[in-house]
């Protein structure tokens, strides 16, 4: 087909193609990329319209029936590894169903590279009487799949279910399997569905598994690990440091609810670790971090001795729990480690006291989030003091959890006006529209002169959600010109 | 074809051109760096590296039609430009989504065969994702039909296989 002929065919199609295509270009897309995406949308003719085009091309060159015949069995002309690639993108249930498609497919699913045993959805409807039965079914299922699985290596191995130390032998077997199958992502999340702490105690990462890790075979397998998540698993400093120091590709380490973790050192100039999350490790006393690759650090837990140095790339931090603000505590010593931060989330426990903010300097900060738990409706205005330290702040988020609502604001503080020149987005998550929230919104309307958007995500619970919808209407009337209200 | 019009409209480099010859005998002119993304072409060019003038080389690709090649070429070209820049993964994903959003089931198969033959692994991954998406939570019968698979089990054999993993057959949505 000559190019002039194609122009003819394209001419009526082109405006339609451009008109139809939703081009997903975000605000943060830089100019060159926008240009590329736009130019692509102009020349891309792979859409429905183009099918006609290529159909014509094919029709002109070959018999249409031949084409249909050839296409019908396209799957049979693909090698097994591509079919396994498709199967690996399905859930295990869907993958196992492919075993009955035809004899060629009978065993393909047993090479699936994603072993995702996340069955937390089943736990939503579980009761104390049915829990043990569900656990047996779950363990039986995991073991059956592992028995059939023949793949030597897997991308992910994910266990998410309510299990405790009484199921130690099964869980340890899975840990062993995950490591020996060279999983790149290994998640072991045993968070209980019904009560805390787990009745038979938190599963303890077994000495047997640790011995295997240290064997030559374990040492070579563990090198594949890139993501490692433990939740409700008692794992010690020694074991975590083993992973940190022996997995050269470890990117992301998350540890939640380990009672055995007393100290942790994440130290090494060659580490590749980018994300470190430590969550609710209630016996932790000391944490030392020196990791030049680290981008994100999230800590929620008791107050600890925290030593942080050599984190030049760290831009994203969450601090909460005992180290949060509230009960007279200040966050100064921590925040001052990180002048290069771009996003910061702080957990604030608000009681009837005056909030103290340290002198800190966050010249690069773009997004500040406050996760507020408050017992009552004390004024939230005190939080805005922090913004003085962040001259380039563009987005301010409040995630609210207020336990006792009231129609009036219990404590007020006099907050001086302060102009926030860069703030463009103000966001409330868990909004219920009570006076403290409205007071805060009005304060921001007055002081954030460049505000463009207010995002409101109402509380998940009734009647707060209903109250939120009512208040949003009030809020809409008060919006300064040029500010858009987005209500989810 | 689309490839030539696209290369003239947004080519920024003075890349050398290579000619690819499709299964239906059409000659398509592409930049050398795009041609090198296709494994058979790469092999051919390496074997014929003593040829001084790239312009004179014609690479035969007997398993891909001109229609399919002319869709692949702009995709690969743009994908190369995108991945040469330090862009976020989600942008590359947005780009891939645009390419695959409106693919018909037949076209999906054609492209999959071509991407496999040409060894364009990033496209294969994207197409595998689309295929998986289209057979998600569907019945065995639907998947067979969709993928054009001939069932060679006897009813007894199939029933036995189903009985081996009953958990896999609970709660399938209507097709």
From TrEMBL, chain A:
InterPro entries: At1g61320/At1g61330-like (IPR053772), F-box-like_dom_sf (IPR036047), F-box_AtFBL13-like (IPR053781), F-box_dom (IPR001810), LRR_At1g61320_AtMIF1 (IPR055357), LRR_dom_sf (IPR032675)
Residues in At1g61320/AtMIF1 LRR domain copies: 145-464
Regions crossing the membrane: none
Residue intervals of the F-box domain: 76-110
Domain of life, per lineage: Eukaryota
The name this protein goes by in its record: F-box domain-containing protein
Lineage: Eukaryota, Viridiplantae, Streptophyta, Embryophyta, Tracheophyta
TrEMBL record, chain B:
Top-level taxon of the source organism: Eukaryota
Keyword tags: Ubl conjugation pathway
Domain SKP1 component POZ: 16-79
Pfam families the record matches: Skp1, Skp1_POZ
Annotated region described as Disordered, given as residue ranges: 1-22
SUPFAM superfamilies linked to this entry: POZ domain (SSF54695), Skp1 dimerisation domain-like (SSF81382)
GO biological-process terms attached to the record: jasmonic acid mediated signaling pathway; protein ubiquitination; ubiquitin-dependent protein catabolic process
Pathway the protein acts in: Protein modification; protein ubiquitination
Compositional bias (Low complexity): 1-13
Domain SKP1 component dimerisation: 122-168
UniProt family annotation: Belongs to the SKP1 family.
Function: Involved in ubiquitination and subsequent proteasomal degradation of target proteins. Together with CUL1, RBX1 and a F-box protein, it forms a SCF E3 ubiquitin ligase complex. The functional specificity of this complex depends on the type of F-box protein. In the SCF complex, it serves as an adapter that links the F-box protein to CUL1.
Description of how the protein assembles with itself and partners: Part of a SCF (SKP1-cullin-F-box) protein ligase complex.
Protein name: SKP1-like protein
């Amino acid at each position: 087909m000559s190019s002039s002929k194609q122009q003819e065919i394209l001419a009526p199609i082109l405006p339609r193609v451009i008109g139809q295509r939703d081009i997903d270009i975000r605000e943060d897309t830089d100019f060159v990329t926008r240009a590329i995406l736009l130019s692509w949308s102009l020349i891309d003719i792979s859409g429905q319209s183009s099918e006609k085009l290529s159909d014509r091309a094919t029709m002109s060159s070959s018999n249409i029936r031949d084409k249909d015949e050839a296409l019908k069995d396209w799957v049979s002309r693909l090698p097994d590894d591509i079919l396994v690639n498709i199967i690996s993108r399905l859930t295990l249930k869907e993958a196992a169903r492919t075993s009955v498609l035809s004899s060629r497919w009978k065993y393909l699913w047993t090479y699936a590279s994603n072993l995702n045993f996340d069955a937390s959805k089943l736990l939503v409807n579980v009761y104390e009487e049915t829990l043990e039965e569900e656990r047996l079914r779950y363990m039986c299922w995991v073991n059956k799949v592992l028995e059939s699985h023949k793949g030597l290596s897997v991308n992910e191995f994910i266990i998410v279910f309510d299990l405790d130390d009484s199921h130690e032998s099964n869980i340890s077997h899975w840990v062993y399997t995950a490591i020996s199958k060279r999983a790149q992502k290994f998640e072991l999340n045993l968070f209980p569905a019904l009560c805390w702490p787990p009745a038979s105690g938190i599963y303890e990462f077994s000495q047997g598994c640790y011995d295997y890790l240290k064997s030559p075979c374990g040492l070579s397998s563990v090198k594949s690990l890139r993501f490692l998540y433990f939740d409700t698993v008692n794992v010690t400093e020694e074991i975590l440091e083993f992973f940190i120091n022996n997995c050269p590709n470890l990117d992301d380490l998350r540890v939640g609810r380990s009672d055995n973790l007393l100290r942790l050192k994440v130290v090494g100039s060659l580490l590749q670790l980018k994300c470190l999350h430590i969550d609710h490790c209630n016996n932790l006393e000391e944490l030392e971090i020196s990791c030049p690759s680290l981008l994100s650090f999230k800590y929620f837990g008791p107050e600890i001795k925290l030593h942080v140095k050599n984190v030049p790339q760290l831009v994203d931090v969450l601090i909460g729990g005992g180290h949060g603000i509230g009960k007279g505590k200040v966050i100064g010593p921590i925040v001052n480690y990180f002048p290069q931060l771009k996003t910061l989330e702080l957990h604030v426990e608000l009681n009837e006291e005056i909030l103290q903010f340290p002198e800190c300097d966050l010249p690069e900060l773009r997004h500040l989030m406050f996760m507020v738990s408050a017992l009552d409706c004390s004024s939230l205005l005190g939080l805005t003091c922090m913004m003085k330290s962040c001259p380039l702040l563009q987005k301010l988020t409040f995630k609210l959890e207020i336990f006792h609502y009231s129609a009036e604001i219990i404590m007020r503080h006099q907050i001086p006006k302060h102009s926030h020149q860069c703030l463009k987005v103000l966001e409330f998550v868990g909004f219920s529209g009570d006076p403290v929230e409205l007071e805060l919104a009005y304060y921001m309307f007055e002081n954030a002169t460049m505000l463009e958007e207010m995002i409101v995500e109402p509380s998940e619970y009734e009647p707060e959600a209903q109250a939120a919808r009512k208040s949003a209407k009030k809020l809409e009337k008060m919006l300064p010109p040029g500010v858009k209200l987005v209500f989810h | 074809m689309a490839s030539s019009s696209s290369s003239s409209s947004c080519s920024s480099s003075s890349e050398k051109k290579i000619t690819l010859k499709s299964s239906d005998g059409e000659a398509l002119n592409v930049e050398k760096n795009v041609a090198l993304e296709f494994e058979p072409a790469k092999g051919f060019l390496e074997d014929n590296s003593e040829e001084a003038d790239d312009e004179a080389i014609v690479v035969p690709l007997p398993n891909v039609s001109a229609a399919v090649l002319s869709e692949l070429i702009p995709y690969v070209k743009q994908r190369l430009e995108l991945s040469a820049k330090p862009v976020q993964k989600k942008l590359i994903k947005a780009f891939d989504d645009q390419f695959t959003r409106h693919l018909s089931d037949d076209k999906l198969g054609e492209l999959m065969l071509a991407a496999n033959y040409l060894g364009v692994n990033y496209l294969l991954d994207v197409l595998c994702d689309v295929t998986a998406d289209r057979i998600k939570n569907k019945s065995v019968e639907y998947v067979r039909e969709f993928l054009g698979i001939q069932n060679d089990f006897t009813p007894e054999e199939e029933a036995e296989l189903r009985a081996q993993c009953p958990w896999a057959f609970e709660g399938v949505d209507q097709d």
